[in-house]
Amino acid sequence: MSVPRTAYLVLADGTAYRGRAFGAIGESIGEVVFNTAMTGYQEVLTDPSYKGQIVCMTYPEIGNVGINPEDAESGRVYVEGFVVKEYWPRPSNWRSTMTLGEYLERAGVVGIEGIDTRALVRRIRTHGAQQAIISSVDSDPASLAAKAKAAPGLEGLDLVREVTCAEAYEWEWGDWRLGQGYRHAGGNRDAPLVVAIDYGIKRNILRRLVATGFRLKVVPAFATAEQIMALNPDGIFLSNGPADPAAVPYARATVAELLGRKPIFGICLGHQILGLALGGRTYKLGFGHHGANHPVKDLRTNRVEITSQNHGFAVDAESLTGRAELSHLNLNDQTVEGLRGVGVPFFSVQYHPEASPGPHDAGYLFARFRRLVEAFPRYGAEALDRLAVEEESVKLKLED
Amino acid sequence: MPLNRDLKSIMLIGSGPIVIGQACEFDYSGTQALKALREEGLRLILMNSNPATIMTDPEIADRTYIEPMTAASAAKIIERERPDALLPTVGGQTALNLAIELAESGVLERYGVKLIGAGLEAIKKAEDRDRFKRAMVAIGLEVPESSIAHSREEAIAVRDRLGLPLIIRPSRTLGGTGGSIARDAAEFESKVAWGLEASPNREVLIEQSVEGWKEFELEVMRDSADNVVIICSIENLDPMGVHTGDSITVAPAQTLTDKEYQLMRDAALRIIREIGVDTGGSNIQFAIDPATGRMVVIEMNPRVSRSSALASKATGFPIAKIAARLAVGYRLDEIPNDITKMTPACFEPTIDYVVTKIPRFAFEKFPGAIDELGPQMKSVGEVMAIGRTFKESLQKALRSLEISSYGLESTLDGLDPDAARAELKRRLAVPNSRRIYQLADALRIGISREEIHRLTHIDPWFIDTFAELVGNEPRIARGTLGPELLREAKAQGFSDRRIAELAGTDEAVITRERRRHGIQPVFKAVDTCGAEFQAFTPYLYSTYEGEDEAPPDSRRKVMILGGGPNRIGQGIEFDYCCVHASLALKQAGFETIMVNCNPETVSTDYDISDRLYFEPLTFEDVLAIAERERPMGVIVQFGGQTPLKLAVPLERAGVRLLGTPSDAIDRAEDRERFNALVVKLGLRQPRGVLARSFDEAIAGAARVGYPVLIRPSYVLGGRAMELVSNEEGLRRYLREALRASEERPLLIDSYLEGAIEVDVDAVSDGSTVVIGGIMEHVEHAGIHSGDSACVLPPRTLNPAIQEALREQTRMLARELGVVGLINVQYAIHQGEVYILEVNPRASRTIPFVSKAIGVPLAKLAALVMTGKSLHELGFTAERVPAHVAVKESVFPFARFPGVDTVLGPEMRSTGEVMGIDMSFPMAFAKAELAASTDLPLAGTAFISVRDADKPALEPIARLLITSGLDLVATSGNARLLARAGIPCRVVNKVGQGSPHIVDLMRAGGIAMVINTPDQFGEKDSFSIRRTALEMRLPYFTTIAAAEAAAQAIAALRNGGPGVRALQDYYGT
Which CATH fold would you assign to the domain A6-150? Predict the structure, then answer.
């Protein structure tokens, strides 16, 4: 048995954890956050929103199901580093084609295992998310702490420019089916067109939009309002993405120009950018929400959805009084989880209705967007309110 | 929606006696539900026949009915109490079946009682296998191909359509009773017959076998606003084909990607909505084809279940408590999460550890039973362990089982590698209770992962984790245990004892070495949220890692050691005592610390004690807790044999024990010291000898005189205890059952034929001794006290004898220095009192006595252990009730085809019921009814008694005749009755050829059987007893029980049993 290589995780505050290296050998700095989802590490690794972050999984056994070609949320691994209690190098799953370690190694991403992840989580919970470093090349905790301390935080950092696509493209793949993979759904030129602005978009959002019956064109985050309107979209989608919404003024400006002209649906960073475009404020949470079990209440129906979450910033509800309505609320900490326009046809959620990983409870939002897009030509600015009335009557009918 | 104000009073049905498939998890869930509803100010009415439950404590519900679990009793209770609603979903299958009966017979409608939690329609849709299947197909889910059959002919038609192998599942049974797999045509017919027999509505589902697929479970909750959450996912280590209750299970699921898990989650949501469970928890089982991921739905329980108890303990989310709140109107988001306080219960727990459950079996108790696992549950208990990795939790679970396993010990025992290879392959192919040890052995001798998987269908992920553990053994065995290796081994869950065994040294050496390097466990909390929020409930487990997050405080505290896994001889009764100790001491201002590893129990509810350590009850694990907590004392006398075994080692390690000194236990258990004690007090005991070798045993028995009772010293539940009537029998025992040895001598006692056995429970504060109760056994001595029916107060003992029993108990308690509880077993033989055994600790009968007399003896005992006197506690005089309470035992024989049902000195019952009324015959009748023995009021009784019982037969026969029964008997018995002028037909013995008695029984011509075997261990009557069991006929194997039954039948003739609440019996 080969002796595993020692690795360190050191926080900016000097707290050091000794563990074993897995994945790539090297050194990496990022903001350390924890994710409480018990499944879906491959999706987490490949979620562009994690750019700039080192992710610690709270579930202790990671690697059990390996890596497969279907479960990636983007074309590459985005986390800066990966922290687990126990890495399992011998996966068992009928779809697995590679081990997690190989995957990280190929991606050049450093991993550390064998540390007390629960202690780390408790530290993050009480002291907040902070910069950290993983290293399997430097074994001096003091020098590592200095490096972590010197690294800039995520506040004010524009990471969108690093993860957005270079050029516009079309996307034609729909939902995943067991045994069939992803469904190709190209060819319907009559379907309404959605232009998705890519701040670091997860593929499952694209798939869900296609599965909902849209034609889909993805544009870079730098696309201007004119460029987007020139595509003659029926609806506009604002994607998730990494880091601080306040650090992408160009995105805010674009959205501000688009507001009211076409129906808009935003998720996560897209939701925050909408909030800013409306003139609101965003702020950094202590340690964010990263997991698949957060209860979110739809304030109109009083139904609770179990949601997939991944964000470190949030929209300040009070800063939007009169400009948007609070539609969804996080029941754990009462933070804003959703907004809907007042007299403007948009809605957005902080959480991830596309799931992947996580529960599908909020999948209905894609259908709502489809209905909004369809209602817009007829009702214009009132489309959202008309839709609400319609949904209410459908619900009443169902209850009868 | 907040509390539904229309509901003022609610009736809850418990699950009755502990049986295989339905254990104390329903006391846990029912008690939780009652406590939650009580907090809402609702009036609560409870029905449960099991006195050893916390839920039947008179302060838990407003009206507590310890009555037989029949629709008739329930209807009478409803008529008296007029509840607004019935909550049927927390009392297991028993409660659900009763609710169906009450709804269908119109009782609920007649009295305006609403079913809450799950309506009749939902229950039936989930329970009726055919309707369930159709519902699944309707919502687009796959189920294994199957069909319903009600007869042999229908079954054969199904077989021809689906093809073998097939699974046969009887409808409406619990724990898969009567379920089996048929692989060939002959097997198929007999198994269908068996299944039809087991089903109350004579219906079986015949299903395509998905044996070998992966099995998963989800625990789902739904509220009235249609919010649905998954509490826990569970993956079975054992593939489909082994009943979930017998499977090793792991939470959360280990081998699913998110996509696959979400498919299952989506399916679960669709299922609970389609079935229409309004509020509460459900358990849904899935099977997945390991090659393709294809998923099929196996079944759903529209109620809290064994798995939901496990899920509650595994996650910290109290499913039953929340289910009760949901049933009375609350929504999930209106209920706070107990543990985090700041967040709502409407979420999905996430865990940052791995939970492993391992079932505990009792095949050794049932000679003739085959140790093979299948669709019918056979385990009698379970343990759960928590670790930060699967390896750690697995190894902790193994040493929690108390089967002298401290890790993955080898079973090969010197077999040469070739023989071992062949033998292991053979064993691995058939799931059995020792399978994981065999799996480890297979890896040790180099059988490949692929081959093991092919033989066992156990997922390679699990096999690999075993391989890693086994792979570390040679490193440990090399003996140079540096701190790195030691730390690694501890983190993987290796016990000091197992490490010592591998390294060829003593446990103490390893412990010392470990401490020298500062390698100590740390403790972490179970908090539902992976540490995302602060936890306020100290529900802890140990691991070997960096941070200890729950440092002890400095309050005055008492540590209580629980009883570990349920098994025959040590069940819920001991958990009841531990819970009482904790509650009483908490109330008295102590901090209480509970240590236990049984997920089914009330004691492991984090609500009960100030701190809960969910840990194995081994010396190493317990000492680690005692040393950090530094309690003022540890209570070892309430948890049965498990903690008792730790008493001396703990004391030697400097831990203070509370109550009776451990030396008293030794004086009671050590034969020579016990003899000296009896002599010193001038008391009498049956003649006996101690044998340390074969020859000593033979000579000793001859001196004592046959028949003799023979048993090993230090046993509970009469393990390996036997009645032997001659030397030949003794030689067989010594050859087959047990070898006498220097360390483990055998006790050989004279057997007092025809004696009446008596149990006395008392509580002592060191000076005052108060009798709790005198229980007279219904069966004669020689039948294990745990299996014997008994009655309180005694019915045939004269006042002088009773006084002698009291006096001798007091003498023994004082002499032994008992502070706490003491139980003494006596035999009354020809007017003399003989002491059989003394147990200076909580006995199995404490809950029964406490319920019968209305005094919480275990609570008093816990308080005297901390220094209170009985005077201070106001309990100074025995309370002899005006009513009569009868305890009856229930047996798992139906689960073990081919096993003899005759009772003997080895305990084999799994649980007990209580019958309570104003007279013995009616109390006995109720007890029998509660034990599912339907005493007949018409029809034919079959009589065949041994010579010794013949004098007592005549009055019994007369009573049966006057009660309206006919008699048939074998020729000898019939002649005897004819001489006495009692009409009786003659029937052939089995040996005399057809048509014989078994033919008559099979043809439905017999309503009741009285058959007392001629001599111990005799097998002639076997087919009669077995047939009686299969035909569900009341059968009595002792003349004393037959007499009680005849009296009970006469009492029932004079009017059906009434119902009365405990609170009325006590006059409170």
Answer: Glucose Oxidase; domain 1 (3.50.30)
